[in-house]
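Quick one:
INPUT:
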């Protein structure tokens, strides 16, 4: 596939992935994290081993697919970055997950890593060899955390396009061809529907787009902020 021809050296790991991983048993979490990495770095998907894994995959797949597609174009998924907590997941982390002796150990590591990076929780109950791996990668994780925090503080102010702000309902009413295929209400929060409405009508590329998910996922590119 053309989008997946560029091999990523790192990708953005969102808290929606952790929301799912935290619900899985350690062995399931390990396989799930490896599946995410295999898709992000190699463009390859594989069937999960349990029903839970496959069900939860459907929850995170739209975000993972859209974000990595943008990153393969040497761009940043700014809109998703503004909506969700995230950190940079490097290829070295994925190699480390595959180095651990079993899926359960990989699951324990990724849970500890996500808790530390996204919630600031210091892991205290890791057992060998997972504790040693976490200490080994601690400095890299800290650097990634600093970069993520700096990125969230950046960005430019949005342009004010119309005096009367549009609501989500107003936006759909003015764009009846757009289908509301966004399953997470969180992604709709804080959207500048006025600016988005103005921008898509000026864009030859986006004015006929029917997927609301794709539109709000690419809001930054559409509006030009």
């Amino acid at each position: 596939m053309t989008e997946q021809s560029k091999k990523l050296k790192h990708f953005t790991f969102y808290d929606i992935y952790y929301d799912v991983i935290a619900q899985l048993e350690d062995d399931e979490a390990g396989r799930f994290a490896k599946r995410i990495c295999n898709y992000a770095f190699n463009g390859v998907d594989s069937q999960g081993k349990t029903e839970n894994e496959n069900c939860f995959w459907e929850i995170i797949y739209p975000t993972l697919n859209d974000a990595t597609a943008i990153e393969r174009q040497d761009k940043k998924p700014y809109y998703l970055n503004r909506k969700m907590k995230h950190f940079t997941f490097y290829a070295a982390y994925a190699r480390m997950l595959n180095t651990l002796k079993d899926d359960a150990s990989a699951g324990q590591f990724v849970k500890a890593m996500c808790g530390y990076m996204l919630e600031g929780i210091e892991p205290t109950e890791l057992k060998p060899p997972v504790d040693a791996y976490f200490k080994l990668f601690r400095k890299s994780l800290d650097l990634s955390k600093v970069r993520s925090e700096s990125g969230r503080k950046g960005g430019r102010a949005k342009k004010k396009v119309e005096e009367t702000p549009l609501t989500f309902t107003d936006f759909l009413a003015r764009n009846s061809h757009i289908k509301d295929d966004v399953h997470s209400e969180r992604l709709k929060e804080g959207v500048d529907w006025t600016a988005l409405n103005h921008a898509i009508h000026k864009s030859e590329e986006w004015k006929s787009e029917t997927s609301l998910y794709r539109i709000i996922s690419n809001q930054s590119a559409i509006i030009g902020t």
